[in-house]
Design brief:
Order of helices and strands: HEHEEHEEEEEEE
Low-confidence stretches: 135-140
Strand content: 25-35%
Distance between the termini: 16 Å
Mean pLDDT: 84
Shape: elongated
Structural class: alpha+beta
Helix content: 10-25%
Radius of gyration: 28 Å
């Protein structure tokens, strides 16, 4: 029975994009059969991949590093992703692969050599902190628009004349439709039988 229309939704979307964490991913294909002593080789390859990613992501050391491998049993036609956030040992990778396989298929993988196909890292810059601001009203945008427009109110009422106001022209007391609330970025149609008002946040 209620619809909430925030002010300056387009601006809010842009702010949301600016607040989203920035990231950069890099994937390298380099097959490796996992052995009992593959830990040093796992470490070496990931260190090289992380360094390549850092060279292309200009935010220094203030980033989070996410690592994963795309693994299969040797001879299988496809691989699955296994995250490796902790230690890089052969056992840790084998356990991560088995866990990912069970989550995906509900059973353990078939016996066989474990083959790493793709190595991947993602560098993530921390999320920005939201800052305050009053986007609710603009002094340059008039409170009232001295015009009306026809809107279609359904098959029974047909076209009816609707007053055109801006969000700044609405008050806390409900104003009955038909009405068009005009914003800089959008227009809100209030049909007959509905009302429009603003709340404390100017929604």
């Amino acid at each position: 029975s209620h619809a909430i229309c925030p002010p300056n939704a387009g601006v809010a979307s842009a702010v949301g994009l600016a607040m989203a964490p920035q990231s950069f991913s890099l994937v390298a294909s380099d097959r490796l059969l996992l052995g009992d002593d593959s830990g040093p080789e796992l470490q070496r390859r990931f260190e090289a991949l992380v360094q390549r990613a850092r060279n292309q992501f200009p935010y220094g050391d203030n980033v989070e590093t996410v690592r994963w491998l795309e693994i299969r049993v040797e001879g299988q036609g496809h691989e699955i992703r296994a995250d490796v956030p902790g230690e890089l040992t052969s056992r840790a990778v084998a356990v991560a692969f088995a866990d990912a396989y069970v989550r995906l298929y509900g059973r353990l993988p078939a016996p066989g050599n474990i083959e790493i196909v793709n190595w991947a890292v993602r560098l993530v810059r921390p999320r920005a902190t939201a800052t305050g601001g009053d986007w609710r009203r603009s002094a340059s945008y008039p409170a009232l628009v001295s015009t009306s427009r026809a809107i279609y109110a359904g098959p029974d009422a047909g076209f009816v004349e609707a007053a055109v106001v801006t969000r700044a022209g609405l008050e806390a007391q409900p104003r009955p439709g038909p009405l068009i609330v005009q914003d800089a970025a959008t227009g809100i149609v209030v049909p007959p039988g509905f009302t429009a008002r603003v709340d404390g946040l100017h929604n």
